[in-house]
Write a structure and sequence with these properties.
Blueprint: H1 7-12, E1 19-24, E2 30-36, H2 39-46, H3 55-63, E3 66-71, H4 75-89, E4 96-97, E5 105-108, E6 117-120, E7 129-131, H5 137-151, H6 171-174, H7 188-202, H8 207-222, H9 226-244, E8 256-264, E9 267-276, E10 279-289, H10 296-310, E11 317-320, H11 327-338, E12 343-345, H12 350-392, E13 399-408, E14 412-421, E15 424-425, E16 431-434, H13 443-467, E17 483-486, H14 490-502, E18 509-514, E19 520-525, E20 528-531, H15 537-562, H16 578-587, H17 591-596, H18 599-603, H19 610-621
Parallel strand pairs: 8-11, 11-12, 13-17, 17-18
Antiparallel strand pairs: 1-2, 1-3, 4-10, 5-6, 5-7, 8-9, 9-10, 13-14, 14-15, 14-16, 18-19, 19-20
Helix pairs in contact: 4-11, 5-9, 8-9, 12-15, 13-14
């Protein structure tokens, strides 16, 4: 056994060097990762009695069972390692960037004799040219397709010119979308000229190609070659559409990211505008969690560190909403990643300041819309449950269970149980029942069996867990509902109340009364029908529950049919195959008669030995827990 970790003793061993520290809880989970210029000073500061920690840090420290650290040669190395460890372990008490997106690039293999234009998710340090990042993978693919059509560039992966002439040209040559460099039918120089024009296009210079397409379209039209004219027209419209997507331009023509955020409670939304070559090519928003006790500067610092640790492209300039912490070391880190200086600026006036303000307003809008969405969702779920509780005069409803019965061909009865917690379906707790004690269309008898089995199973499971010293939460049936919902009126409610009374359980039971169109019109509760407003959230929730219970039963029917099990319950009895099943059905009119037969009567059938007769009898008369 390893010796117990003594925090005070280990604090004395901390080195006077830069590095990264990791805090572990009792379960040895990493709950916090941080970096330090001097490990000794930083880590000790957490455990001083006089330390004035924020509530979040105080909670974190109270959970620390041990810590470890990694020494680095510099603060810059510590920053890189900190980012990697946060991304790897996602510690609970670090301010986290929730999104982990990779953005697409357009890659032009300019070092090849016959270059290609490709889609790429990463920007490598090779001899290719990259354009992006872009926010839409679909837009990137469309642009690549357009470029290949415009300039007739190859899309194959043949090794050229080494493999020239080894295979026949592909379909693209025959439909006039490639000049077949694979056959050597276009010189490297002529092909390179097309690539240069494609690069001009990717740099945003659309004027030349638009003018060229228009003249070709007009010439084809005058020559009455309308098919070619339509092709040039479609290409012209595609280029026009791409050119019009550039909504914001910057005369400086720089690559820059504009970053601002808005926060509310535990969450923040960061908005990033991507400006490439002076043009706004897209924007994206990111969610930050666990921010309530962080300053605005700390939130922005965490975002910059985590975001640029994961993106391959670093622009020349970052325009930020406010000053960030550790700016000097972050600038140095970004410079190393980019290979040249990165300017971090907080603009105070002019167009740049307006751009940052626009990003901030967009972030606030996203956050506001999310809040409204959450409120609407709460109205549909928790609000609807509270509405039902008020109608029924119940103090609280959290868990609801609804039951439905369906018949199949008179031989199979099945029951479904669906569970809703806080107004949302909890599908892991759904259950389906194949009826054993009832034959024919007897919904009341079937419902009695299903409810009895459900609650007997839960009571038995609860007893078993207690005997083993285990918590009841580990049982699948141990948690009983706050409200039982029956798919019907007075009759179904009375069956449920009878079962609960026999088992000495006290659970409110409510019937979902239907109209002539088999839709819920009200609730039957405590011997009276309670009408419901059809536009109310409570009514809508009940309708969803009723539909879900019915859907679940129907799906069970389908699964039984797909397994060819709908014809007889006898298929589930050990020792009863097709021959014995036929013998039983020949001797008895229905399943009910088989269930009522004694062991001796069953054994009197020639094809049924005594041991199988006992199995058949036990199957129908064993405890309804099974």
């Amino acid at each position: 056994m390893e010796p117990k970790f003594n925090i005070q003793e280990e604090l004395k061993k901390l080195p006077d060097k830069p590095g990264v520290y990791l805090m572990h809880d009792k379960a040895d989970r990493i709950i916090y990762v941080g970096k330090a210029i001097i490990l000794k000073n930083r880590v000790r500061s957490y455990f001083r009695e006089s330390a004035n920690h924020s509530p979040k840090i105080a909670r974190m420290v109270s959970l620390v069972a041990r810590f470890e650290y990694i020494v680095t040669d510099s603060e810059l190395e510590a920053l890189v390692l900190e980012n990697n460890l946060i991304k790897e372990h996602r510690p609970k008490y670090n301010t986290m960037l929730k999104d982990d997106k990779t953005y697409p690039y357009i890659k032009v293999t300019v070092s090849d004799t016959y270059p290609r234009v490709l889609f790429s998710r990463e920007m490598k340090k090779d001899k290719s040219r990259y354009f992006g990042p872009f926010t839409s993978a679909g837009a990137v693919k469309d642009t690549i397709e357009l470029i290949n059509k415009l300039y007739k560039l190859r899309t194959c992966n043949r090794n050229l010119p080494k493999d020239c002439g080894k295979e026949r040209p592909c379909l693209n040559y025959h439909i006039h979308q490639c000049d077949a460099p694979c056959q050597g039918w276009i010189s490297p120089e002529d092909y390179q000229q097309k690539v240069e024009e494609a690069l001009e296009f990717l740099n945003g210079n659309y004027g030349k190609i638009l003018k060229d397409l228009q003249s070709k379209m007009e010439a084809a039209s005058e020559a009455m070659d309308f098919e070619a004219a339509i092709t040039y027209r479609d290409l012209y419209q595609s280029v026009k559409q791409v050119s019009q997507k550039q909504k914001i331009t910057d005369s400086e023509g720089e690559d820059r990211d504009v970053i601002a955020f808005s926060k509310d409670g535990e969450d923040a939304v960061v908005q990033v505008f991507f400006v490439r070559g002076g043009k706004l090519i897209g924007r994206e928003h990111f969610y930050m969690t666990n921010v309530s006790e962080n300053t605005d500067g700390q939130i922005l610092t965490s975002f910059v560190k985590q975001f640029y640790a994961g993106t391959p492209f670093i622009p020349r300039e970052l325009l930020l909403q406010m000053e960030i912490e550790e700016e000097e070391i972050i600038s140095q880190w970004l410079k190393e990643r980019r290979g040249s200086r990165v300017h971090i600026r907080v603009p105070k006036k002019g167009s740049k300041e307006r751009l940052v303000d626009l990003a901030a307003r967009n972030a606030a809008l996203v956050l506001s819309q999310d809040r409204e969405k959450i409120k609407r969702e709460e109205g549909r779920t928790i609000g609807a449950v509270k509405e039902l509780a008020g109608l029924l005069g119940l103090e609280k409803i959290s868990r609801m269970e609804a039951f439905d019965i369906s018949n199949i061909n008179g031989f199979e009865n099945v029951g479904s149980m669906v569970v809703y917690e806080k107004g949302k379906p909890k599908k892991s707790d759904y259950r389906k029942f194949k009826i054993k004690s009832v034959s024919g269309p007897d919904d009341y008898g079937c419902m009695k069996e299903v409810l009895t089995r459900r609650f007997l199973h839960g009571m038995e499971e609860s007893r078993s867990l207690k005997e083993k010293g285990m918590d009841e939460q580990f049982g699948s049936f141990t948690r009983f509902p706050d409200l039982l919902l029956m798919d019907g009126g007075k009759g179904q409610v009375n069956i449920a109340l009878q079962v609960l009374d026999e088992l000495k359980l006290s659970i409110p039971v409510c019937g979902m009364v239907k109209d002539d169109h088999h839709r819920t019109r009200g609730l039957y509760f405590q011997n009276e029908e309670i009408p419901l407003e059809k536009n109310s959230e409570g009514f809508k929730l009940l309708t969803r529950i009723q539909d879900e219970a019915h859907r679940f039963a129907i799906e069970y029917h389908r699964s039984l049919r797909s397994k060819e099990q709908v014809h007889s319950l006898l298929d589930d009895i050990p020792g009863v195959g097709p021959t014995r099943r036929k013998a039983l059905m020949k001797a008895y009119k229905n399943i009910g008669d088989i269930r009522e037969a004694s062991v001796e009567e069953l054994a009197g059938i020639p094809q049924i030995p005594l041991s199988v007769a006992k199995d058949i009898y036990s199957f129908f008369h064993e405890s309804m827990i099974n």
